Structure formats: C-alpha cells, structure tokens
Amino acid sequence: MKIVADSAIPFLRHFFSSLGEIIAVDGHTIGPDTLRDADALLVRTTTRVNAALLAGSRVRFVGSPTSGIDHLDTAYLDQAGIPWAAAPGCNARSVAEYVLSALLVLTETQGRRLRGMRAGIIGCGHAGSWVARLLTAAGVDCILHDPPLQAATSDRRFQPLAAALDADVVTLHVPLTGTGPHPTAGMVDAAFLAALPPDAIFVNCARGEVVDEAALVQALRTRPALRAVIDVWNHEPDVNADLLREADIATPHIAGYSTDGRLRAVAAVAGKLCRHVSGREPDVGLPPLPEPGNPELRLEPDLDLQSGVRMAVLGSYDVRSDAGVLRALAQSNSGSLRRGFLEARNNYPLRREFPARRIIVPPGRAAIREALEGLGFSVQQGT
User: Fold this and answer.
1) What pTM value is reported for the model?
2) Which residues contact 301 (CB under 8 A, 6 or more apart)?
3) Burial status of residue 284 (CB atoms within 10 A of its CB: 0-12, 13-18, 19 or more)
4) Residues 71, 93, 126, 207: which is the catalytic one?
5) Which residue ranges form the domains of the chain, and what is each CATH number?
6) Is 236 a catalytic residue?
7) Which residue among 27, 95, 379, 382 is least packed, with the fewest CB closer than 10 Å?
8) Which entry of 97, 209, 213, 236 is annotated as an active-site residue?
9) Is the separation of the CB atoms in 277 and 289 below 8 Å?
10) Rounded distance, CA 169 to CA 196, Å?
11) pLDDT tens-digit readout, 300-335
12) Annotated catalytic residue: which of 118, 145, 253, 365?
C-alpha cells in the first residue's frame, strides 16, 4: 500500500511504516498528480480533500489527525465510498490549557484576578467542555452556550447567547458550519462584538472564518479596554496583519498542538487505517514521550491560591513563548508572515500537557492542592 502523507504529521513513520510505503510531502503541495497511484492519504487542516483533489486517484482511505473536519468534503467521501477518519477531541485538553494560560497572562498584565471572573463558553463539545473543566478548577464561573447540544440533550445548564456574551471572558469553540439551523461562519460580527462588556477578553480557538476579522479589528481600535486572544485566522496560512497588531495574544493555530494531543490524534487515525486494511487492531504501541524541560515545580510556602495556580500553569505552558513568533513579524510583509506561520506550525517544539508535570505543594495548602489536582497536575505534598 502506498500512503501519501503530510510530512508535518508527527510520529508518521512510527505508526504507519508497517502499513505500507510512506511518501511524505509538504501538505501545501498535495495535488491530483501527487495522488495518482496512492492508496491512502493522510492530511492536516492545510489540505482540502474533495472531488477535485481525488479525481483519477485510487485513494481508498483518507485520514486527518485533527479535531476539525471542515477541510474534508465528507459528503463527497461518503458518496464515493471512501472511508475517512479524524480525531475529534484528541487535542481538547491542549486547547483548554492554552486558553487558561492566555487568560492568566492577560489578567496579570491588567492587574485583575482570574479567580471569580465569569467566562462565556460558546461551543461545548470536546474542547469547550475541557475549557469549562479547567476554568472551573481555576475558580472561574462558566456560562455555557451551545444550541445544538441544548436541542439534543435539553440540558438546563445551557444559557442564551446574551448571557454568554455578558461575561468577563468570551471564548469560542464551535465547529465551522455554513448551513443548518445554527451556522457559525461569520457569527462574530459587529453586533456580536458590541454586546461584549467594555473590558471583555475575547478568545478564538475555533476557526478563523467564524469571525468577521474587519469587525474585530474595528472593535479593538475603538474600544481600548477590549482584549483579544487569536489562534486561528481567515485564509491561513495568510495572516491578517491588522488583527495581528491589534490582538493582545496572537499565535499561529497551535492551541491544540501539545505533543500529547498530537500523539493521541495520530494513534487514533493509524488504528482506523489498520482496521480498514487488515480488520485487526494495530500492533504498534505508543512511543514514549520525553519529560518536559521542567518536570517538577516546587511552590513557595507564602503563595496565595491565585499565585500558586498561575505559577503552576505558566511554569508548564506560557503562551507568550508561542505568541512571540508572530509578534516578531508584526511589521513584516505578507510573505514573511506566511512563512513564519508555516514554520511555527511545521516545526513546533515539544509541549507536554499538565499531567506530565509534578507540582510540590507546601504542607497545609489544601486549597492550592485541590485546584491543581482539578487542573490535572500530578501533585505531591512537600515537607
């Protein structure tokens, strides 16, 4: 079997070399000519998979180790009888850790306390649910809004959009949809932004096309207390330079790029391909992951609860390390921005999730210990 794969997919040869010959190529160069004699295709969100791409090929399986599937024409794949696989939820914890890190950075620079704030979470699937879980553990009151889930479950926790927008933080975790009863494309428009409190923090880790970027730029320019955290962009890998300059934290679509999450995603797709080819479970185990650069953090005895959480979170993942990539290119031309965006995504460094770190908490600090355990850290009591 010949497998054409985006070369930036991690753990590619570990999981797929036993299944066939791997042809690793730049995902942006994958076209019909690349796939003439391919049996399987593995892509990221950078490759649009549709009839135009697969016409004339013998591809009989498409895998994408990603949470979103808006780059896959699933209707066409189903109609053509081509099995496909993705990995929804595999990077959800990573996205939630990104959101928490960004909020701790912004509130610290503003002199505000995250604990006790209110967050409107719009979209409560895999990622949104994890965001609610971590923010709740950090002492944030979460307001959930998800019309499709509310219709499917009748869960009374879900609240109207107006309630979610009237919050200190509004964070998006919706899929990109253009049809149906609840389309999300362009849902964040001037009216949406006008409903936010003057000093709200707006976060987009969903898809760039969910936001009217021109309206957001205008809002940020005319409302100096409004803050924005932007990880996804219209027309990636091209970046809206105006929005980049106005955003407080801007990153190159890496919120879900923890090494743990990417490993889970690739393993899930490899398992589905193996079952498709042989009808059996894969016999390749998970590779061991290296420890993070700072596997253990010892908290000082005099830290209060908020400071203890901030130190543990930012000591594990500080979003500023990723935001610096685009910030350094804010005054560059579009070509440099594009190259920097791609370079950052294709060569993303090791990033372990919270459970990979041990936090040593001083004796008698039960509240800090409870909060950190709620965030997923491995917590030990010091002496």
Assistant:
1) 0.94
2) 362, 365
3) middle
4) 207
5) 2-86 (3.40.50.720), 92-250 (3.40.50.720)
6) yes
7) 382
8) 236
9) no
10) 9
11) 999 999 999 999 999 999 999 999 999 999 888 999
12) 253
